[in-house]
């Protein structure tokens, strides 16, 4: 089989191509892993590997190649490329878990040449006889976070169907060339003009980004993020979900509002802009496809201190709805409309990455945990809030750019954020400014 015909990059891919050439000691990656523990039966790696191979060829993303034609970046699909799930056995290491995390970090923090190197790596990392990590890393020019999750579900769903002796039904999905063509169609259509008007109005006099760092910003990308993580206490999670139900909002909106309140409190700023990663996918076929079309959008929240929890959640929900309705207008053009002309700037403020699975992540015969390792470029601060299915634990990861934050700082901010979350739940009718003042006085 020969390589396919070259086709254009999406707007999101072009932005990533440009970012890749701003700094020669950094590559943007998306990486995650499943922590698989045997329960009812041994995990059948060969069966799972077969499903990953089949799904990857269908999605094409792992077989992406990038080149330059007449001075312009292009991409094509080469199904002759070697891609598989490699075996990494660390069971004999003194500390298999530490060795596994070191192996994954060395991979997703490494440098890649997108015109020469494979854009994807997958591995089974054995850390015990009954415990395996399934790891997947892709260069961000080929994979966005949604595509990486699609690859994950493709592997899990194919494995479950095989274990149960069921036929795996392949739903219609777009090829990568069709994803690119759909992006071109959007940029040539009338919907783009509607979205542009929305964002030009929204970012007029956009507040400057808030930072919790005491250091001068470097605007240097680094793969070595400072990361602290907590699995939310079940009692606190129940309270958050209960508050969301009472307010007629999503759990994600409540948590995003609480994070905005924390940034306002800790950063001493009343007007807060968050950055929201969105899928940029509008149709069912595109949503089932691989590729990179994700976007980063501003969530503008003015006068945070004057809000109560209820009114701030309402404001956040309104902003999130607007983002989703106008999610395809490119970050770079929104940034220019906001007066941001530095190509190194990749966010409007701290990033809030909301990953709440529509269906529970479950693997027959095993207990499974989901963990995000890398979500692309980090300018300053990002919180990952994710839940692998309704009823499962919510995980809170706080990432800091290591040129801006130390581990103790990130750990302190994470603890303080969760503490403020408890406080706003205890006092839902109290203004955020009063809550912040009481915390400062303690």
Could you explain how this protein is built, in words?
With 442 residues, the chain is of the alpha+beta class. The protein is 39% helix and 21% strand. The chain has helices spanning 11-20, 45-59, 96-108, 145-164, 176-188, 190-202, 234-247, 251-267, 284-287, 309-325, 331-337, 407-426, 432-441, and strands at residues 29-38, 64-69, 72-77, 85-89, 120-128, 131-139, 226-231, 272-278, 295-301, 351-356, 366-375, 381-387, 394-400. The strands form 4 sheets. A 5-stranded mixed β-sheet has the order 4-5-6-1-11, with helices on both faces. Strands 7-13-12-10 form a 4-stranded mixed β-sheet, covered by helices on one side. A hairpin with a 2-residue loop joins strand 5 and strand 6 (131-139). Helix 7 crosses helix 8 and helix 8 packs across helix 13. The longest helix has 20 residues, at 145-164. It starts with 10 loop residues before the first helix and ends with a helix. The model has no long low-confidence stretch (mean pLDDT 94). Pfam families: Condensation. This is Condensation domain-containing protein. Residues 9-435 form the Condensation domain. It comes from Williamsia serinedens.
